[in-house]
Amino acid sequence: MLPEYKTSVKKVDNEEKMSGKALFTDDIQMDGVLSAVTVRSKISKGKILNIKLPTLPEGYYFISAKDIVKENVCNIIFSDWPVFADKEINYKGESIGLIVGEDKKICLDLVDQVVIEYEEKEPVFDMKNSAIHKDFEKGDKSVLNDPNLESYTEKFQTGYQEQVYLETQGMLVYLDGDKITVKASMQCPFYIHKAICRTLGYPEDKVRVIQPAVGGAFGGKEHYPSLMGAQLATALVKIKKPIKMVFDRKEDISFTTKRHPSETTISALIDKKGKIRALDIHVSLDAGAYIGCSGVVLSRALIAATNTYKFDYVHISGDAYITNKIPSAAFRGFGSPQSIFAIEMFLAHVAKKFRYPGVLYKNQYLVETGDTTSTNGKFRDKIILKELIVKAKEMSDYDRKEKEYSKPNSYRGIGMSYFLHGCGFTGSGESDLIKAKLIIRKDKNDIVTFYTSQVDFGQGNRTTLKRIVVDTLGIPEDHVIYDAPDTDKTLSTGPTAASRTIIIVGGLAAKAAQHLKDIWVSGKEQEIIEPYVGPDYIHWDEATMQGDAYPGYAWGVNVVEVSFDPITYEVHVEETWSVYDVGHAIDERILVGQADGGILQGLGYGYLEVEEMANGEFRQKTMSDYIVPTSMDAPKMHTAFIDNPFKYGAFGAKGAGELTFVGGAPAVCIAIEQAIKEKIYKIPANPEYLMEILEK
Amino acid sequence: MNSYIPTSLEEALKILFEHDCYILAGGTDLMVQNHRSSGLLPTFKKDVLFTSQIEGLDYIKVINNELHIGANTKYISMIESKFVPTMLKNVFVEIASPSIRNMATLTGNINNASPAADGTVPLILLDARLVLQSKDNKREISVDDYLIGFKKTDRKPNEMVTEIIVPLTDHKYLWRKVGSRKAESISKVTFLGAYKTSNNKISDFRIALGCVSIKPVRSKQVESKYIGLTIDELKNKKDEIVNDYNQLIEPVTDQRSNKEYKRKVAINLLKSFIDSIK
Ligand SMILES: Cc1cc2nc3c(=O)[nH]c(=O)nc-3n(C[C@H](O)[C@H](O)[C@H](O)COP(=O)(O)OP(=O)(O)OC[C@H]3O[C@@H](n4cnc5c(N)ncnc54)[C@H](O)[C@@H]3O)c2cc1C
Question: What is the DSSP letter of A641?
């Protein structure tokens, strides 16, 4: 029996955060701490000929590539990003060095006085140099030779998106004895740990990463802190005094990683009745100057390209392009929001072409339990998408509204998106790459402590993971201790990313707790180290992109209703209705937090958040120019979950963090299309773009 | 850098006479403009005179059918005041957010002289005036004359604004602020149109447009062409009016919007204002 969790518990970090006691990176005080400020390149591509430093006052340092201890590379999935640009500059804003010293103000002034001579080269801003290409197909190709099919092609574009975590990037490093110790705003303590060990050539036990309170991440703190860690550790080895680097909002928006801009081309071969017989999808991602995690983002974008649908034949391909721009990296959804936006819009457009109302057209392609995935894997677990759709329609009064708003000049619209999210790392990544191991320990007083490397950056996993262990053991809550990660105490249970925390680490915690319970002897010290063992059916070949890409899938349906002002071209999101299958909801209130935040961020991606690049530089650099929805812009939101326990997740839970983001953009754009009776090919569908469409 | 926190106007004017100072009211423009980096105090290049403690500059009163607003009056006080007409309140409630409106002043909005300021649009439409004082002098100037360029005013270094005077009227009006979102939003276009009718004739007609030039655009010359027409005659001249304003405005592309959008929306709002006249 699964526990009934409609009543949620108080989050364990409520008190410390509401009272202001929680210490975030910049709150941590240390005697004699120095500040670090980055010297950044002012050109997009070229060679550094000469660095002319101002006279540095006593106690001020310049740290650069020449100070690298072992390897000038930042360890990210594909490690091509240097810790400090040595000779080559590949994007405007690239770190060339750090000025470190006691007074941040003086550091800032000194940074302004550094004069760098460059030999400028022609930068590439367009997507033309492919660094990674992937290609796969599924189904019977013979349909391509059918002369009776009509070909129909559309192209979709998505823009940059900025994470806008509340707390900007920040890191403090110091020596504890001879151990490099790091406290930072982060998602993945072991990523930072590894990056520092690699650049310094240090053994693992010479570096320690401790997580303080973290204010939001959304993927933005998955990789960038590794770069900061490698830089600051290099400085620490030389200076041997505590150093802190905290970004101002403007620096954070200007130079840290964003969501990959994309261009997706979809071509369909359609028969006389309007049925798609074959589909060709190509996704282009702008990786920016370094590849980093872009290959993995591309994989996810491609695997998700057919979304919740099946077609007789599909050919999916994609490229990640190197450009002389800020590197793109992780952001909630990790590639899938781009391709799911494209397929949802494409199907909505084909439906219009053949005069199908609303979602009727796309419903004929829905995958069902047992069907193959886009990569010829199998949807093994029960799919209840149709139930989600029925429920969402009912909640939103979709059919009536859809009909009513389709009348001319309604200036109102309703849109419905379907989406899925593969939980956990792609393919066999969990068993082969991450190899999570979780320690659970009991002392003589029967107090249980367990350790993970999962960061609670506000999403609530400290509460939920603890609850999983407390409930599995069936002991009082205050008999279980679960603190924030510290690489000296915990083994790696992997990064806080990929919607893997509850499905993978939660499952592991439940298993470890169950094993402890099985061998429980009161009054005795006991310890279990539980390794992750993936479902044995997962077989994945990254080279051919074939097999089971994920251990499990979470599903969702968003309905968004908008009104449109034909005078100002402004969109008002009136109301949303969402229904999710995240397996079994362990704590519904925490899930609603993810759902509300997720759809709002997804809506922002779809109709509001503009981040333009001009000459290798972002044009929107502040919170007043980079527009995220405020609470005044937030619509009334209704959210429901339908129970569908997943047998490998903790208490039946699957992932929910990213899923709730994915559907917002297509749903709002389909709604806007109905309100304006025109087609949208690009997000954000902001008033300037809508004016362009309507006045063309 | 020195900070001065005078408690009387006399003292403030003396300080301004002796020192070249920034005048800081609510600070919601100045603190942002002089922000250095996280964890650091803002760096002001000159001394700063804080007006918040000056006695007797925070008031709203009506004298001879004119609204007198003390220079230190915050938006929140004006929004809550029974003397302030709804036309102004409707503008003020859309500025920034509650926290900013609790701190910021209309005086600051005028003196910051941003093309995107909301508060100056109704002031120019209503022929509002400012009282400026220095140690030895006191003068009045219309807001329109005071705003002389992009972020430029007619203020002399030793002067400060002590009062805003707004003639009270009973115009019918249409106000629209078009920003990027519903709160905390710097405007892309603002529109305020006002009119009066008597015996089915237009007895007054005023238009002010924000964000489409270096300061709010208003032309009494253009307005006068349409005063005296019947409502129908005015509506029949919609194209001419549109044409007039199309020539007056010169929006530019910036990081918030583009000039095509600003122009189009300004004109759409103008048209909808004309349509709304009855
Ligand atoms: C988040 C945010 C949102 C905002 N949203 C809006 C918005 O929607 N619409 C809008 O119009 N503005 C907006 N602003 C800008 C700002 O809040 C307004 O311009 C406000 O009215 C400034 O008033 P203040 O009292 O804070 O001015 P301050 O910052 O104190 O001063 C502004 C200028 O006025 C001068 N000044 C102040 N008092 C006097 C005086 N007595 N005599 C002469 N000069 C003086 C100062 O020297 C300075 O140049 C926003 C600002 C922020 C930070």
Answer: E
